[in-house]
Specification:
globular; 17 strands; Metal_Hydrolase; Urease, subunit C, domain 1; 432 residues; metal-binding; 8-stranded parallel sheet; binds ligand LTUXU72L; alpha/beta; TIM Barrel; 9-stranded mixed sheet; binds zinc ion; 2 domains
Length: 432
């Protein structure tokens, strides 16, 4: 007897060798996909009838600061440097374990609700992020965010904390938590520190999550201080490889794009954050044309201001079209690949496709809605017409985290109430 069967669904497998299955069935056992096809001989304890809905791989958010969800709507409409240095960093200095736990629980709730099954995170008090992820049932690649600003003592302390986090949490929560090292950016971390981080990550066999060339200011800083841009600087210290998840990559030259593709670097494109902070536009279609792995993230809730990956997919497509003045670039299926297959590759997880032997990480999208009617092309609706609110069921590791719109792994009202209380206490502390 299997654990679960989902039947009568339009299945968007994202498996290129199979394609879509119009009236399909998926069998789940021990957190994995046991069978996928048009029929099954299996029976299961739980059967979900998904008639009229789309069953697809859950979305993967490859750049987030989940704890920052406590700052949703705090410090809008500013230049990135002003926003970060004069507002966000002073506010973060006031954050406690409990604030980050509350913010991350709120983030997990929103992600489960809007069809995200996994996210990559970089933040402070990351132990509390891990605790929240463990309890919420979602999957994540977590890193303690490190900044040394060229201070050797701070570098030692940060690396010690990043290392301790990796040792404590890697592979935990039934394998749902992976860890990474999280040096913040090439303009906030010293050269020596980045070299040490890379060495440690290789030793620990974990990946690295870093912001790269988000702003023109970073590009200018690197050129002034090192005589080269961040891409060449990181190449110079043997940093690049398929173990690197580089967020943003907005200010790239054609030569930089070739380097990122050649080294198999994973690039998280964060269109809403880049638009809101007016950072610029990542050359996504050029990166993809050169064979780079580009995936999609939301960034934190203080620069977005939500974690809806459906919205992020739509923005990714529209932004490339208008910036290249070519409506044929980044068609819907390609964007879906970025948010599923490419995200899974970046995180090194067997998700992002509905295929035998893969993690049972999937979502059911209700298509019986006015704004999703009629249907000529399912992929088109998922990217251009749907939103996270259309997700009715979310399954991670074979466990149902939300069923027919009810979140089962978290007490929704409690999560919201605590986040409200924490935000009120926080603003009093910040303003004092
Ligand atoms: C050291 S933990 C991570 C650090 O990153 C900050 N952050 C959030 N969003 C961005 C962004 O768009 N660019 C650069 N840094 C960002 C966050 O506030 C934490 O301090
Ligand atoms: Zn970020």
């Amino acid at each position: 007897m299997a654990d679960m069967i989902i039947k009568n669904a339009y299945i968007l497998t994202m498996d290129p060798s199979v394609g879509d299955i119009e009236n399909g069935v998926v069998v789940i056992e021990n957190g994995m996909i046991k069978e996928i096809g048009t029929s099954t001989q299996c029976s299961a304890e739980k059967v979900i009838d998904a008639k009229g809905s789309v069953l697809m791989p859950g979305l993967i958010n490859t750049h987030c600061h989940a704890g920052m969800t406590i700052f949703r709507g705090y410090a809008d409409d500013m230049q990135l440097q002003d926003w970060l240095e004069n507002h966000i960093w002073p506010a973060e200095a006031q954050l406690t374990d409990e604030d980050i736990y509350a913010g991350t629980r709120l983030a997990c709730l929103e992600m489960i609700r809007s069809g995200t099954i996994a996210f990559a995170d970089m933040y402070i008090h990351e132990n509390k992020v891990a605790q929240a992820v463990d309890e919420a049932g979602i999957r994540a690649a977590l890193s303690y965010g490190m900044i040394d600003f060229g201070d050797k003592e701070k570098a030692d302390k940060e690396l010690k904390e990043g290392s301790a986090f990796v040792k404590e949490w890697n592979g935990k929560a039934d394998g749902r938590i992976d860890t990474m090292y999280g040096p913040h950016a090439p303009n906030t971390c010293s050269r020596d520190f980045l070299i040490r981080v890379k060495e440690q990550a290789v030793k620990d066999n974990v990946k690295i999550h870093i912001h790269v060339l988000e702003t023109e200011a970073e590009l200018n800083y690197m050129k002034e201080n090192f005589g080269m841009c961040s891409i060449h600087f990181l190449k110079d210290i043997d940093f690049w490889g398929p173990d690197i998840l580089a967020a943003h990559c907005v200010w790239l030259s054609d030569g930089d794009i070739k380097i990122l593709a050649e080294y198999g670097v994973n690039i998280s494109h964060n269109p809403n954050s880049n638009m809101k902070l007016a950072s610029g536009i990542c050359p996504v279609s050029k990166l993809l044309d050169n064979g780079a792995n580009v995936c999609i993230g939301t960034d934190g809730c203080a620069s977005n201001n939500n974690l809806d990956m459906f919205e992020e997919m739509r923005m990714a497509a529209l932004l490339q079209k208008v910036s290249t003045m070519d409506p044929t670039v980044l068609p819907a299926r390609k964007v879906l690949e970025m948010a599923t297959i490419n995200g899974a590759k970046a995180l090194g997880i067997k998700s992002g496709m509905l295929k035998e032997g893969y993690n049972a990480d999937m979502i059911i999208v209700d298509m019986n809605k006015a704004h999703l009617t009629p249907v000529y092309d399912v992929a088109s609706h998922l990217v251009y017409a749907a939103s996270g609110k259309d997700v009715e069921t979310t399954i991670v590791n074979g466990k149902v985290l939300m069923e027919e719109g009810k979140v089962l792994s978290l007490d929704e009202q409690e999560v919201i109430d605590i986040a409200i209380q924490r935000s009120k206490d926080l603003i009093l502390k910040i303003n004092n």
